[in-house]
Specification:
single chain, mainly alpha, 7 helices
Length: 177
Amino acid sequence: MTKEYRHSEYRKRKHKRNRENIIIPLLTTSIVLVILIFTLDQINFGIRTAFGASALIFTSFASSAFIIFMMPYSKAAKTSRFVKSYVIAGIIGYIGFSASAYINFYLIAGLIIFFVSLLLFETDSEHPPALGIAMAFLLYRVPLTGILILFAGIAIMVLFRKLLKKIGVLITEIKVR
């Protein structure tokens, strides 16, 4: 059996498994996002009222939830990649926002994209929605409290992923014979 054949077989099984069991991941994604919105809103992070800043940060979480709960077997869905990518993006994004008072906006935007992409690659933590987090800090001038929103969201997503994996709702590996 060649490697190409095994990969093709893996993709067929993965797709078939998802088709048969799509309702649970769909419900899981929706429920986790609603709980995330509710929790962050209740602890006054202003998901709905912060001039779009919190909302824009939250949209990256929505993209990540799709990856984590609908495609849990993908490399980007690994918990370590998700956490590292968001921490890197948040820190670089906040540094970029802080520096934008002194440096040209477009230059800072380019530097943020460059450095976040480089660090995600170098730390083996590629998780595409994280780049949106970094840009949100710059575009919406998200203050330091944005880091708190980020860490609270990360914690909620990771806790739900672990819980769902433990009770058997989230299956992160598909075995190919």
